[in-house]
Amino acid sequence: MSDDIKKIMFTVRNAPHGTIYVYEGLEVKLIMAAYDADISVVFMDDGVYALKQGQNTDELGIKGFEKTYGVFVDYEIENVFVDKQSMEDRGMTADDLLVIGEDEDTEAPIKPKVVDASEIAAMMAEQHNIMSF
Amino acid sequence: MKLAVCIYEGPYNHEASDSAYHFIKAAIDKGHEIRGIFFYHDGVYNVTKLMEPPQDDRHIANRWSELGATGIDIVVCIAAAKRRGIVDDVLVDNVRISGLGQLTMMAIEADRMVTFGD
Q1: Rounded-to-integer distance, Cα A18 and Cα A21, Å
Q2: How many angstroms separate the CA atoms of B23 and B106, rounded?
Q3: Residue of B51, B47, B29 whose CA lies nearest to B37
Q4: Ranges of H-type helices in A47-104
Q5: Which residue of B has its CA nearest to A14?
Q6: Which class for B92: exposed (0-12), middle (13-18), buried (19 or more C-beta within 10 A)?
Q7: B60 CA to centre of own chain
Q8: Which helix (H) or strand (E) segment is A109 a member of?
Q9: Distance from B5 to chain A by nearest Cα, in Å?
Q10: B111/B6 Cα distance (integer angstroms)
Q11: ipTM (interface predicted TM)
Q12: Is B77 a catalytic residue?
């Protein structure tokens, strides 16, 4: 079946805190990565806030999950994208983005790739299924 | 077409469960196959037999159970369920608790995955 691996995209469109969608959605990504599927993740709209480094949920009294994004590359979730316009609308730049793993050879930190809407649209058109959290 | 349906919201509070139900009924009437139904987030509350709505209102859990009795695989996510106190003992018939692997298989095997929720 290796020649028939399905492409599945996750879109993350909600803010990381305030509702549980993004946190429980992260659990889905980590599980699905263990299966024979070609996974990609796109953060857009308020979802870009989930990728902001330096989050602290202590005063909210809820469990933070920002650090979990750091295992994405280890889990072979390497196709991670963030919408440029959504970041700009919220005053974020590429420097604000957290690290999702490191390069196997150089140990250089890997960050989500900033893409524009047309690139996202092109990727969406190739997907077998798209899930939103 | 082979469809899978995800439901993210709890019953009565949100229209997602009703919309999903009507969508599935309409899809079946049109001859489509339902590969599976997956309850996630607060969606896990849709299939507890502890609910007791007023008699002149729809009984959401029983409705899902009746759909499950037709042979459609209805799965409640175990991680989401445990977090919210939904266990085997409180489930209506014809619904099962299982893992996110089931959602994965639905996403892979269905031609379309349709999500109801915010």
Answers
A1: 9
A2: 17
A3: B47
A4: 84-89
A5: B118
A6: buried
A7: 10
A8: strand A109-110
A9: 11
A10: 14
A11: 0.91
A12: yes
Report residue B20: phi and psi, to 5°: -60, -45
Cα distance between residue B118 and residue B116, in whole Å:
7
Contact A131/B6, CB-based, under 8 Å?
A: yes
Residues facing B36 on adjacent strands: B4
Structural domains counted in chain A: 1
What tens-digit pLDDT sequence spans chain A (133 residues)? 445 899 999 999 999 999 999 999 999 999 999 998 999 999 999 999 999 999 999 999 999 999 999 999 999 999 999 999 999 999 999 999 999 999 999 999 999 999 999 999 999 999 999 999 8
Token pair in block for residue B97: 């608790």
Q: Which residue of B has its CA nearest to A37?
A: B108
Which position has the token pair 């969508």?
B23
Question: Long-range contacts for A52-57 (Cβ within 8 Å, ≥24 apart)?
Answer: A52/A92, A52/A96, A52/A97, A52/A98, A53/A96, A53/A97, A53/A98, A53/A99, A55/A16, A57/A17
What CATH number corresponds to the domain at position A125? 3.40.1260.10
Structural domains in chain B plus CATH codes: 2-116 (3.40.1260.10)
Q: Which two tokens stand for residue B115?
A: 């999500």
Q: State the residue range of the domain holding A76.
A: 2-132
